[in-house]
Specification:
The chain is about 45% helix and about 20% strand. The chain is α/β, with parallel strands linked by helices.
């Protein structure tokens, strides 16, 4: 071998070796922060849905991504936990609903924030439009104003003699004010009188439901919020104690003792939200990812609770249910 060719070969190997070494290094571990209300044990199905969605996209937990959880027991604790995630340097914050998004956006304008079931992101100002979100927030949404009207109509169908219906809502949920207006319109169309009671925390729920008893309401529609989903077991028990049939905005509430629910399929929506996380981790800006409207909804009826309340659910409604718990 000639001297010049030998030097070129050695030089090429010297360059190739570090390049090969760099190529074999594992990809940077993506850190995904989950901001939620309640306990992790109560959200197992939803957490697993995100894991499944990421696995379907080729991610391996512990090797290519980690989930960092921050759970608040009250809404007031969320702000501090959102700041913790920002200081921890997560690559993206998963904030399932409008309640978590509101505090996450106050904590950062640079870290991407992804939601999975935002009740009305345009109306509350979290995105500029569905097609062009702008800013650092995007994800999958549910139009709560349409959903609550459908829930009220379905509830009236289940309880045709109900003329006074209680509405339990949460003042800390940004999307509830538009939802209340939609309920008022729907109530007028159905010819029912609505009685409103707010609950900002778990401590307020018992008093709010007791107030419904004093007002002579026949049943109670619970406007979906992270708080009410987290407190669904105690909420169902209190409603049973007051003999109040309930319509809920989360399937888990019917599974855990509520009379019925009509809601988006939350695990499915969360699984699909993983696509947004993947796109962002690969460099796409949240502002360039249009908000997708959830399209899969479920009607669940708990016949055990119906029997306990001496309610005969109409057969036609039972036939339409996606799931009947017996």
């Amino acid at each position: 071998m000639r001297r010049r060719e030998f030097i070129s070969l050695i030089g090429g190997l010297a360059v190739a070796r570090p390049l090969a070494a760099r190529a074999q290094q594992p990809a940077k571990l993506a850190r995904i922060g989950w901001l939620g209300i309640g306990l992790a044990a109560a959200s197992e199905k939803r957490i697993e849905a995100l894991r499944v969605g990421l696995r379907e996209l080729g991610y391996v937990e512990g090797k290519t991504f980690v989930l960092e959880f921050r759970w608040a027991t009250t809404v007031d604790q969320l702000s501090g936990l959102a700041v913790e995630l920002v200081r921890a340097g997560v690559n993206v914050i998963f904030a399932p609903s409008s309640t978590e998004v509101e505090v996450a956006r106050a904590a950062t304008t640079s870290i991407p924030i992804i939601f999975a079931a935002h009740a009305d992101p345009v109306a509350v100002g979290h995105v500029t439009s569905l097609a062009r979100p702008g800013g650092n927030i995007t994800g999958r949404s549910v139009l709560l104003t349409d959903l609550v009207a459908k829930q009220l109509a379905t509830f009236k169908e289940a309880l045709p003699n109900a003329t006074r219906i209680g509405i339990l809502w949460n003042p800390t949920a940004p999307s509830h004010q538009p939802a209340l207006k939609a309920l008022g319109t729907a109530g007028d169309q159905l010819g029912v009188h609505l009685v409103y009671a707010p609950a900002r925390s778990a401590d307020d729920i018992d008093a709010a439901l007791a107030a419904f008893g004093n007002e002579g309401v026949h049943c109670c529609l619970v406007v979906a919020s992270a708080l009410f989903t987290a407190e669904r077991i105690s909420l169902a028990r209190i409603m049973l104690r007051f003999r109040l049939p309930g319509m809920f905005g989360a399937k888990e509430s019917a599974e855990d003792g509520g009379l019925m629910s009509y809601s988006v399929d939350f695990p499915d929506s969360i699984r699909r939200a993983a696509i947004y996380i993947d796109r962002i981790l690969k460099g796409t800006k949240p502002a360039d990812l249009p908000v997708e409207q959830a399209s899969k909804y479920e009607l669940v009826i708990n016949l055990k609770t119906a029997a306990a309340l001496n309610i005969a659910v109409p057969p036609l409604l039972l036939a339409r249910a996606d799931e009947v718990i017996e």
